[in-house]
Amino acid sequence: MSLTSRIKNNKEFRDVISTIAPLKEDYTTLSGKPPFSKEYTCLVESNLPHAGDSSLVGMAFDYLARFRIGQVINNTDAGKCLTALKGMRKLQIKTANFNLVDEYFAPLRTAVYNFIKNNQELTDDIILVALRLGKLEQFFRMRVPKSFDKNEFLTIQRSEMLIPDLKELMAVFEEKFISSGIINKKNEVVFNPNFGISSFLVDGADADVIVDGVLYDFKTTGNFKYDSKDSLQLSGYFLLNRFLREIENDKHLIMCSLNYSEISFNNVRLYKARFGEFECFNFDVVNEELLLNDAVISLAKYFESNPGRLNNIVFVDPLIDEEGYRDAIQLIANKNKTPQ
Hints:
Elements: H1 3-9, H2 11-18, E1 28-29, H3 51-73, H4 83-95, H5 100-117, H6 124-141, H7 150-154, H8 159-178, E2 189-191, H9 196-201, E3 209-211, E4 214-219, H10 228-247, E5 267-272, E6 277-282, H11 288-305, H12 313-316, H13 322-333
Parallel strand pairs: 4-5
Antiparallel strand pairs: 1-6, 2-3, 3-4, 5-6
Helix pairs in contact: 1-2, 1-10, 2-11, 3-5, 3-6, 3-8, 4-6, 5-6, 10-11, 11-13
């Protein structure tokens, strides 16, 4: 159960996140328009007839946006740690074909590297690569039916509709995200950031990108209205990162073993790709003492009873101190809450 699934399906966890989640009126926009309002102009209409297509376009756009940012800052890390690779490994197990990484995934990875390193143009070919990566990510996140056909699944259906849609979305991204100066060669960027043990505790949580201490989450929905799920997701990222900071006080724990890049952010932004709008919130307005003494403590209490994959952490790396993490979580859970 990933972060988004846990928010959707677990009331106790959702209630903890809700204590710090911003409401509609708490957001601002970079354009100055009222957030989540009819004043937005739809720049790329959503005309995809199938829900699966919309999901695939969303994932492919995430990849293309990261790759374009990688071009600007000349950093091929944008093509690393792709969730699609987890889908590829899952597909190998499902099909018992352990050559798929070399046969199918390696050419995609090479195309991404060349696109970034050689500052190539956005062509149909690289968009198709992003769609294939998105398809693999879909596979990682889905329950695989018994009647599964690998070749049928990996075929990109209706590409004649998906590719033009992604081209338009990337044209808007170029104007609003790149040409506007949000991204430049001096930016400090973390691609696909995760939150170490906190991500592990919720069976997976990784964001799109962090630029100079601002976390951006890309959305390709055609709906401009406020969605509490999006706000809870952003708040979940923030709280998981703050929870990790508390755990880090126990210095003997080996954080690097969980592929964690130390990051810090207080600002979060939803980028609505079809509107070119940014919806922004700064967690500095959340009472610091309340956050650390209440929300983080409540999260620790939740993790005491719901440790996610913590029981299997030794299989990830035998050097990781499972008991040390348990002790750190218990220590946080036993702190006194802020008096009401």
